[in-house]
Amino acid sequence: MAVREPDQQIKESPGSVVSAQDTQMDITLDQLRQLVSPRALSGETMLMNMGPQHPSTHGVLRLLLELDGETVVSCVPDIGFLHTGIEKTAEIKTYTQGIVLTDRIDYLAPLICNLAYVGAVEKLADVDVPLRAQYIRVILAELTRMSSHLVWLGTHALDIGAMSMFLYSFREREMLLDIFEMVSGARMMTSYFRVGGLWRDIPDQFADAVRQVLKLLPQRLLEYEKILKENPIWRERTVGVGVISQADAIAWGMSGPSLRGSGVNYDVRKAMPYSSYDHFDFSVPLGTHGDVYDRYRCRMEEMTQSLKIIEQALNKLPDGPVITDNRKIAPPPKHEIAYSMESLIHHFKLWTEGFRVPVGEVYHAVESGKGEFGVFISSDGSPKPRRIHFRAPSFYNLQALPQMSKGALIADIVGIVGSIDIVLGEVDR
Amino acid sequence: MESQKKFAMSPSILAELGDAVSETQIFRDEVTLLCPKHRLLEVLQALRDTQQFDMFTFATCVDYYPGEPRFGILYQLYSTTRNIRVRVKVMLSGNDRSVPSACSVYHAANWPEREMYDLFGIHFEGHPDLRRIMMPPGYEGHPLLKENPAKVEEVAFSFNRARAWEDKPHPQE
Amino acid sequence: MGLEQKLGNMGIVTMSAEKAINWARSNAIWPMLFGLACCAIEMMSTQASHYDMSRFGMELMRASPRQSDLMIVAGRVSRKMAPTLRHLYDQMPDPKWVIAMGDCASCGGVFNNYAVVQGVDEIVPVDVYVAGCPPRPEALIDGILKLQDRIKKEPLTKWN
Question: Which residue of A has its CA nearest to B137?
Fold first, then answer.
């Protein structure tokens, strides 16, 4: 945690080839005049810089904290340290190639990002997805949600001081990553979903591996609860900290467990079901106080509900194709190319040019581990989108951080940042 | 996908908004209300107060270059009580890149508008804190405009490897 | 076993200073706790229970650049982050090493655009590049072992 006056510029390092344009990164106090209290200008309160290299900011978040003793008077987040230009790069990729970029937005829940993206393109192109593919998507999306929540649990607990949680939750996460690797060949950057269905069918051992998870995780979750739920230190650090009211949470556009911790019943899976979520029976856990503890409870309950959904989907998993038979969108199977001229042409068109979609603008949202993850596509009728915008839940959740941290202690900032479960890849895109 | 259709907003509700909405577009059962830029705040205020669109979902900008009007500013709203979505859109000419800020109606519009200012150079009148958000403060230009190239570096193949290597900056110890 | 058999009666072992110091350096590299993007999650997995990087004398991640020897650049480096990254590198005490973990840190990866530095070697000198998007934990461990080999062969005259 480096203490530095904000109006003091970072000197350009000798030998650095970063151009002068890039080094003008520091905000001057003059620009922040309206964001901090007048007491900061007279030097009565202290301004402190936290990040972008800080172990507890979950990436490269920078916070400018105005402190009166140990109390936070105001908090000014500075983001963009991981701005990747994904939206610009997506404009020169075809709709199929774009799937690869979506993994890297929310890298803790890549399959859910895939799901949002292919959902938006399917809506734009008006394609129907086979039921089997929809169910497999649900299973994988819920497994992804759990792996995302496990990373959150480990790092959040680590920030507050429960080191062992990190080791436990990463142990379980490996189990889930093995399943992703089994279906897609990659641990994290899966890119498994395709427009109109899936890349290929699941392997035979998939069901057994998922059942293993279903068998093991409930007891493991109980172990976590034993460590944290009634732990006096944990409760001391979380109960009543970082409170945000229902009205404020809605006004700041929060979503996901961070919103539901305040008691707002909004879950995209229930409100606007996609990918057959309405076929499954599950409940949406709600908090009451909107503090760090309630957000933690919501996520823990959500993992239990995810297990419930996976079990139902696995039991009801229908047979059939896993990708649409619309040859304008989905590539023909390999064996057809050998004897069918049309298939060969379709194959050639799809891999050289991509498919064309109607002119229009669509928005499709899914419930990711962090909240409502949406994809907005503006199409000009060509195989490449005119503009893609990703509605990142963390971006809006983080925006409410100044509201939540007002009057908190400096030590609690870490807990509050952890409790809204931001992932900077998604905030900055 | 199919099931999301039935939650779309029915056009009849729009009659209440009167002539502030110049055009209503419906595509894939998503409602987009076009309004002139001087009546944007009025429409947003009415949607929030009388139509219960309490949640601000996102705002973004689309560059329709070379079309004219060139920019489309979109505000997507959601009603937690009625469970419907609506999108408000303002078209801007390429010569006049300013629009009233929606921050006074929706707090959550703050960062998305800063993002649009940063990436597209749209000026939001009355925004409380209009600074760059994604790019460094000293950056010049607005990268997501269509006139800016998407690729910045020549990809090195065997025929141009030497040149690409020379162009690349190298650090010193 | 090993060393004590060579001690003899006097309890003294003779070896070159170069070898002794390089051995010590290579087996107690303290990496900086510094994650950027997706690769940082794999870096965390590498330290966590399943892969356990501490088997190679690397468990001690330091959050401060002044206490660390190795910077693992895990993820894409944006233009906004680049000056900070160089600043952190300059703060690290000599001798110091850099691993570019993943495609984005090595060459910009899929993001050939305005926002991402096309390879962190534009900003800091890189010793080992680890390919993959993101690299598996085994790949990162392999990269670290390669770096250890390299440190062990470093000649005395190169020290500064």
Answer: A25
The reply to whether residue A170 touches residue C41, judged by beta carbons under 8 angstroms, is no
**Residue B118 belongs to some domain of the structure:** yes
Radius of gyration of chain A (CA): 23
pLDDT average, residue stretch B129-158: 83
Nearest CA in chain A to B4: A272
- What is the fold of A86-428? Cytochrome-c3 Hydrogenase; chain B (1.10.645)
Predicted confidence at residue A275, as pLDDT, reads: 87
Which pLDDT tens digit goes with each residue over C24-69?
Answer: 888 888 888 888 888 888 888 888 888 888 887 776 788 888 888 8
Measured between beta carbons, the chain A residues lying within 8 angstroms of B111 are: 395-396, 399
Q: Do the Cβ atoms of B70 and B93 come closer than 8 Å?
A: yes
Task: Say how many domains are in chain B.
Answer: 1
What would you measure as the largest C-alpha separation in chain A, in angstroms?
81
Give me A106's structure tokens: 């929310």
> Distance (Å, rounded) from C-alpha A4 to C-alpha C80?
19
Contact A89 C112 (CB under 8 A): yes
Interface residue of B139, B153, B165 to substitute, partner C, most C CBs within 10 Å = B153
The residue with greater pLDDT, B133 or A27, is B133
For A321-346, write each residue's pLDDT tens digit. 888 888 888 888 888 888 889 889 98
| Chain C residues touching A155 at Cβ < 8 A | 44
Task: Determine the Cα–Cα distance for residues B130 and B110; give it in Å rounded to an integer.
Answer: 9
Q: Is residue B102 part of a domain?
A: yes
Instruction: Pick A100's closest partner by Cβ from C37, C81, C110.
Output: C110
- Strand order in B84-92's β-sheet? B23-27, B30-34, B84-92, B71-79, B55-63
B148 touches chain C (CB under 8 A): yes
The string of DSSP codes covering B13-30 is GGGGGGGG--EEEEETTE
**CA torsion A11→A424→C118→A379, rounded to 10°?**
-130
C90 vs A: CB within 8 A: yes
B4 interaction partners in chain A (CB closer than 8 Å): 123, 272-274, 364
CB contacts, 8 Å: B169 with chain C: 122
List pLDDT tens digits, range A262-284.
988 898 988 888 888 889 999 99
* Domains of chain C, each with CATH number or no CATH: 18-151 (3.40.50.12280)
Three-class SS of residue A305? helix
Please tell me the predicted confidence (pLDDT) of residue A66: 87
CATH 1.10.645.10 placement within chain A: 86-428
Inter-chain touch B170–C112, beta carbons under 8 Å:
no
The C-alpha of C104 sits at a distance from chain B's nearest C-alpha, in angstroms, of 13
Contacts A108 to C, Cβ<8 Å: 41
Q: Please check the confidence at residue C1 and state whether its pLDDT lies above 60.
A: no
CB proximity B171 to C under 8 Å: yes
Q: In which residue are the tokens 């950027």 written? A: C36
Q: Given a cut of 80, is residue C100 above it in pLDDT? A: yes
C-alpha to C-alpha distances, A43 to A6, A68, A77, A357, nearest whole angstrom: 12, 10, 20, 58
Q: How far is the C-alpha of A389 from the C-alpha of A101, rounded, in Å?
A: 12
Q: What is the CATH number of the domain that holds B12?
A: 3.30.460.80
When pLDDT is averaged across residues B118-125 and rounded to a whole number, the result is 90
Residue A165: helix, strand or coil by DSSP? helix
pLDDT value at B7 more than 60: no
Structural domain boundaries, residue B105? 2-142
Q: pTM of the entire structure?
A: 0.89
Q: Is residue B138 part of a domain?
A: yes
On whether residue B154 sits in a domain, the answer given is: no
Instruction: Spell out which residues of chain A touch residue C35, defining contact as CB-CB under 8 Å.
Output: 59
Residue B9: pLDDT band by 50, 70, 90 thresholds? low
Residues 2-31 of C with CB under 8 A from A: none
If one counts every other C-beta atom within 10 angstroms of the C-beta of residue C124, the result is 26
